[in-house]
Amino acid sequence: MQNSGIRVLFEGSNFERLLGGLLVTIEIAFISIIIGVVLGTIMGLLRTLNSRPLKAILRLYLEAFRIIPILVWLYVVHFGFSPLLGIDIDGEVTAILVFSLWGAAEIGDIVRGGLESLPRHQLESGKALGLGTRQLYRYILIPQAVRRMLPGAINLATRMVKTTSLVVLIGVIEVVKIGQQIIELGVIKAPTASFWVYGFIFILYFLVCYPLSRLSKRAERRWQN
Amino acid sequence: MMVYIFGGRVGVHMQLNWEFMIESLPLYGAAMWLTFKLAFWGILFSLLIGLVFSVILYYKVKVVSSVILAYVELSRNTPLLVQLFFLYYGLPKVGVHLSETACAIIGLTFLGGSYMTEAFRSGIEAVGRTQIESGLSIGLSKVQLARYVILPQAFAISIPSLGANVIFLLKETSIVGAIALMDLMNVAKDLIGMYYKTAESLLLLVLAYLVMVLPLSLVLSWVERKVRYAEFGD
Question: Dihedral, CA atoms, B49, B52, B57, B60, nearest 10 degrees?
């Protein structure tokens, strides 16, 4: 019985299909992180400027993602925006939109934290040398801040890959959905399939996230001191 | 709010139906209560596991420590959704049948346990060596040292990260709808499906989470400030 269950993973193209599904989630995470880093860097820089209203708005934006679960935002865009705009927004696009905005908020906070944690004398020495604001950021602040930000950013990437598993709930065909299809197809021939398929997906996620979180820990030890 | 953002034709359709919202409040209330119960048990068990496991890790108990470290990595590097699906759909195939509620609590505990372990552990590690050595030099036993010197200080140090984990787990309960529990997500989804009151249902959904998480988040930042004061003040 149990043998027939595990065999389901390797029947036909099931194995490749599951990996392909995993790729869909990774792709969503990857694109979102890239967009998030670009937007987030801008937001982080803006948050270090001395503008109270700007700071307040960006802080509010961050808290919106910290307080309301990502799944709720996925639902809001998926169920709310499509009928509102009268167009059908693809699940993957919805996911990338929400994850990018979330990523931007978190990266923005990491960038702000990185910049603010730099010793004041770095900034003041730069000024004493006669560097302008742009030069100050370009040559002094950003290079040093990037090192401090890397562990947090990689950590966010891990969280994002894990969170992309939620996109199945807004109808994206990814690894969990393909797993469900395989289970449904084999419901008579391999009744124990769901144990093996979900177990396998569990391991797949681990194999992607574990190296990332190791990397983050190593970066932390190396650069944060 | 969205009325003004998108304007025009859309604005007409976006009139919020207050009557509908008030009528659906009890449904949201029930779902919030469910979320609260699941989160309460999940968080409580996670804290217990975290406390026990971090002490075991601190004393470097052979074999058990390695198992705990493996668990921490497994739990932290996999999504709750997949953990829940495995518990709910996978385990019955090998003879383990659990109710939806049990799955949700076990899933939250499996996830939260590792986060709490890490939080307590970093707290314990942050207790100064001089504290421990002073304790030993005035003749405290290992148990006394843990009870009176290490744990109280470790706990104070870990409060911010413990609090962050509590909020994290509370938010993670939004996923339990995937295993057929009538939580906030499913209430909203059902109302949208049945009455097509999309804006109202989603607004209530966002508000429900805001009501649950915002006070907690405010309390946490207040506690954090107090703890920081306790650390640096007299």
Answer: -140
- For B89, the 3-state DSSP assignment is helix
**Using an 8 Å Cβ cutoff, are A94 and A77 in contact?**
yes
- Mutation site, B85, B172, B198, interface A, largest A CB count within 10 A: B85
Mean pLDDT of chain B, nearest integer: 88
* Closest in A195, A209, A213 to B94, CB measured: A195
Joined tokens for residue A132: 């302008």
Cβ(B73)–Cβ(B111) below 8 Å = no
What whole-number distance in Å separates Cα of residue B105 and Cα of residue B108? Answer: 5
The ipTM assigned to this model is 0.87
Three-class SS of residue B14? coil
Burial-class residue A4 by CB neighbours within 10 Å (0-12, 13-18, 19+): middle
Range of the domain at A72: 2-223
Domain count across chain A: 1
Q: What is the pLDDT of residue A90?
A: 87
Residue B234 pLDDT: 43
Chain B: residue nearest A3 by CA?
B94
Looking up residue A184, the CATH number of its domain turns out to be 1.10.3720.10
Q: What is the CATH number of domain B27-232?
A: 1.10.3720.10
Residues 6+ apart with CB under 8 A from B163: B216, B220, B223, B224
pLDDT of B5 above 50: no
